[in-house]
Amino acid sequence: MKKLLFVLLLAPILAAAQPAPYETRKLTDNVYIFRYGFHQSLFVVTSEGVIATDPIAFLRPQAATAYLAEIRKITQAPIRYLVYSHHHYDHIAGGKPFKDAGARVIAHRNAKAKLEQLRYPDVVMPDEVVDDYRAIELGGVRVELYYVGRNHSDNSLVMLLPKERILFTVDFIPIQTVQFRNMPDGFIPDWFDSLDRVLSLDWEQMVPGHPYAGGRLGTKQDVRELKQYMLDLSEEVRNAAYRGKCFDDAIKEVKLPKYEKWGSYAQFFPMNVQRFSTGN
Ligand SMILES: [Zn+2]
Q: What residues does the ion ligand 1 have nearby, CB within 5 Å?
């Protein structure tokens, strides 16, 4: 009974500590982040229409309807574009409400090719593809889409808002967080070039596709640190291979204490090591 009372008293505090299932954050007068669970997207509002990114509604169609409802709280302007960051369905499933609202769906050429093979039932096919670059001018706002090469997939598009100096990058630049599992679908040597290309663009704040590091925005320093992490990892794996009689045991010894406090270190670091040990 005492225990029950304790739980009842604690319930409002626990509820307050839980993050809301979704929220919209205003970054500038016309740029917003929509977060649903552990995924997030960027949208840009102009007088002539809205440019939205990833519907983030895989196995939860309510995420896309909540996303649209959040946009509608801000503007009644038409939804003109829906830009896919890359082909992974946890980011791009559930775009039908956007398509129904009139959005033109844009993705990288390789993303469309992947989606044509995979035929996910809840992914709307792109109407238009981008090779290396595409600029969208809408209602006095300029949005630039860049393909910066292969990284976490072979089809990531980054979105730059040159005036606002905001960059939306999604999955290939986690902030103070190790890479996802063994970097499935990833291209290791190319990834470094991709990070350099991101560093060469003119921006100040980076919005990733997940609220890493407490949901803060990224900086160029974060990109440099991620690159350093991947370089350190590569070097440690190589050293371990030289030291070890047995490659597998040597790989198990690899630790990078400098990054122990990074997100997902305990969970994914061994898989990151495994990926670098395969040498591709
Ligand atoms: Zn992904």
A: 88, 171
* Beta carbons within 10 angstroms of residue 203's beta carbon: 21
pLDDT at 19: 79
pLDDT in tens, 142-199: 999 999 999 999 999 999 999 999 999 999 999 999 999 999 999 999 999 999 999 9
Strand-strand pairing, 79-83 and 22-26: unpaired
Q: What is the distance in A from the centroid of ligand 1 to the CA of 100?
A: 25
Give the Å distance between the CA of 144 and the centre of ligand 1: 20
232-273 confidence digits (pLDDT tens) = 999 999 888 888 766 777 778 899 999 999 999 999 999 999
Predicted TM-score of the model (pTM): 0.91
Whether the pLDDT of residue 12 is over 90: the answer is: no
